[in-house]
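4.2 Preliminary Data

To establish feasibility before requesting continued support, the project team ran the inverse folding procedure on a target of 202 residues. The structure was first converted into the token representation described in Section 3, and no sequence information of any kind was made available to the design step. The complete token record follows.
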């Protein structure tokens, strides 16, 4: 099997977290993509608003209709930070014979050298970097350290073209905090209903 891993705070999950992943699944031929809602993201200390269990529920609701996209609670441990390398080790052990892909954005790829044990991470999983249709390898390469740039063109990194989805989680939270209705196509209906029922951002 070919399995994708996709982590994030998902505060809240929106179509910018879903449509590019579906495109990546098609382009890479992934059998499954596992979403990993993070309780305490090490790169965003104190940044999330909704409680971990609420963000988990929103992810489950958002993915409910697609059997190829599932959620896993591995990173949902409130008492400790979640580091990607630990998650990859876990799933590498759980699926020893399968091909693993870690789906990340260009911004995360540019910061890869700051990640804990990133060299070990790349040895365990292929990086699937989500890029815009008009991306230029040279422009991205200029942002990378020499060690990370050296990965480009190897079998450890592949680039997945995805149509940009103009949704901002920050703007979503701002709108939801005022009771305003988000623009059409920003949030799955079940997620919006859940947010409004429990006043998550108010």
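Position-by-position output of the design step:
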């Amino acid at each position: 099997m070919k399995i994708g891993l996709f982590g994030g705070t998902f505060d809240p999950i929106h179509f910018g977290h879903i449509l590019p992943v579906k495109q990546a699944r098609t382009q890479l031929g992934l059998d499954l993509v596992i979403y990993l809602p993070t309780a305490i993201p090490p790169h965003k200390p104190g940044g999330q608003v909704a409680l971990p269990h609420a963000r988990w529920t929103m992810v489950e609701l958002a993915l409910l209709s697609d059997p190829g996209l599932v959620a896993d609670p591995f990173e949902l441990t409130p008492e400790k930070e979640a580091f990607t390398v630990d998650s990859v080790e876990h799933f590498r052990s759980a699926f020893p014979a399968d091909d693993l892909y870690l789906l990340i954005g260009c911004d995360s790829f540019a910061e890869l050298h700051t990640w804990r044990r990133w060299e070990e991470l790349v040895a365990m999983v292929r990086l699937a970097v989500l890029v815009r249709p008009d991306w230029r390898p040279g422009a991205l390469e200029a942002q990378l350290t020499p060690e990370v740039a050296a990965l480009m063109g190897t079998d450890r990194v592949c680039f997945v073209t995805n149509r940009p989805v103009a949704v901002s989680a920050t703007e979503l939270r701002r709108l939801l905090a005022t009771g305003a209705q988000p623009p059409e196509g920003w949030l799955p209906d079940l997620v919006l209903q859940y947010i409004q029922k429990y006043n998550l951002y108010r």
